[in-house]
């Protein structure tokens, strides 16, 4: 089974590593070694329970429909396409330039660049929530289907359920790091703008503009994150297809 943990996706690592220095602590280590470093006592107990469950072999004999993997693959593709459309949406509606009230006439309003940056932050947070909700629901659905299939896939579903719980806290702590890296990237492009100092907002968002350049990188990173979030469920579907490839 293809098991994903944050920052083990080649695309995501390539993108983020090209923008900031990547942590060196896990370099040269395989998945099992990285997992061992992150396990606590309760995690070890959960994995031991899983081992005993798998060893007991108490999984009823059932047949797997030949169309199961294809049907689940279609489900994954629908979620992937829905997220792709959400990522591709324009961010301009999320820009908010709030002017000072009459009571605070001396206050300086935020610049348009600040308003745009806030818009991207809000949209990024919303998309991460959407990816999390859709990926979790899809993963639960696929596991539920596999639990009614042949013993091999029942075991796989049980294993994935435990691994998801074991890795949940680490993943929740890791996803915000992508947002922080992208904030750094925004500041990089903002400094480029400040050095040039043109105040043509339309030019910023047009091809060749600094906001347009950031948006392209931002969407590329989001698509890589989407693929990483869907990687565990894609691995389950691939495993379901193995018995019908011959």
Offer a concise description of the structure.
The protein has helices at 10-19, 31-38, 41-56, 68-88, 112-146, 151-196, 201-205, 210-242. The chain has 246 residues and is mainly alpha-helical.
Major beta-sheet overview: none
Counting helices, strands and paired strands, the structural category is: mainly alpha
Radius of gyration of CA atoms, rounded to a whole number? 22 Å
Q: In terms of quaternary structure, what is this?
A: single chain
InterPro entries: DUF3348
Protein name: DUF3348 family protein
Pfam family, one: DUF3348
Organism: Ramlibacter algicola
Comma- or semicolon-separated keywords:
DUF3348, disordered N terminus, 0% strand, single chain, DUF3348 family protein, mainly alpha, 246 residues, 8 helices
Characterization of the model:
By secondary structure, the protein is an all-alpha fold. It has helices spanning 10-19, 31-38, 41-56, 68-88, 112-146, 151-196, 201-205, 210-242. The two termini are 18 Å apart. The longest helix has 46 residues, at 151-196. It has one domain (10-15, 42-53, 65-93, 110-242). Mean pLDDT is 78; it is low at 1-8 and 99-104. Helices cover 71% and strands 0% of the residues. The radius of gyration is 22 Å and the shape is elongated. This is DUF3348 family protein.
């Amino acid at each position: 089974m293809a098991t994903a943990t944050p920052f083990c996706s080649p695309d995501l690592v390539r993108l983020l590593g090209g923008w900031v220095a990547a942590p060196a602590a896990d370099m040269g280590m395989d998945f099992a070694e990285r997992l061992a470093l992150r396990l606590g006592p309760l995690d070890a107990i959960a994995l031991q329970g899983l081992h005993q469950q798998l060893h007991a072999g108490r999984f009823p004999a059932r047949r797997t429909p030949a169309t199961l993997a294809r049907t689940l693959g279609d489900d994954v593709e629908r979620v992937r396409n829905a997220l792709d459309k959400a990522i591709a949406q324009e961010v301009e509606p999320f820009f908010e330039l709030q002017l000072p009230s009459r009571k605070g006439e001396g206050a300086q309003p935020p610049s348009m660049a600040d308003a745009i940056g806030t818009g991207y932050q809000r949209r990024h947070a919303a998309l991460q929530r959407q990816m999390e909700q859709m990926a979790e629901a899809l993963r639960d659905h696929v596991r539920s289907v596999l639990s009614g299939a042949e013993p091999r896939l029942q075991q796989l579903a049980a294993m994935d359920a435990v691994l998801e719980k074991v890795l949940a806290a680490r993943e929740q702590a890791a996803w915000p790091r992508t947002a922080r890296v992208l904030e750094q990237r925004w500041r990089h492009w903002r400094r480029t703008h400040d050095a040039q100092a043109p105040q043509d907002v339309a030019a910023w968002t047009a091809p060749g503009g600094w906001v347009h350049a950031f948006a392209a990188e931002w969407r590329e990173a989001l698509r890589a994150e989407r693929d990483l979030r869907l990687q565990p469920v894609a691995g389950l579907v691939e495993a379901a297809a193995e018995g019908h490839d011959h």
